[in-house]
Amino acid sequence: MASTPFRPWQPRANLVVGSPYTTNNWLFDFGATHHLTSDLNNLSVHQPYNGGDDVLIAHGSGMNISHTGSNFLPNQTRSLLLDKILCVDIQKNLIYVFRLCNTNKVSVEFFPFFLSGEGSQHGGPITPRQN
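and the corresponding structure tokens:
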């Protein structure tokens, strides 16, 4: 796809990932503006996308959005809603951290070897599920 001019409101994704990586994992992307997946099976509810926007990726090209939807991200204490997920031709599933925290009223802390979070709705820790 051809490079498109930068628009601050345009969906974006920036990602650096090492191996190994399984396709059902979701990764935090601090440069993303939306949750992204390429697999419709990652959307419990979805509909075709009829808008005119593309997702702008780090090197400046755009990817077509085929569907939008939502799903729940399970963990040990409660499921977290991933809403407004865009389905595009991307190799990784990306989580927009701000939307995850804002939608679910949680915070996330990152440490060198693990992450931790707390949700205001139940006042306790949110513990990532071990795969």
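(Above: one complete record from the training split.) The chain has one helix and eleven strands.
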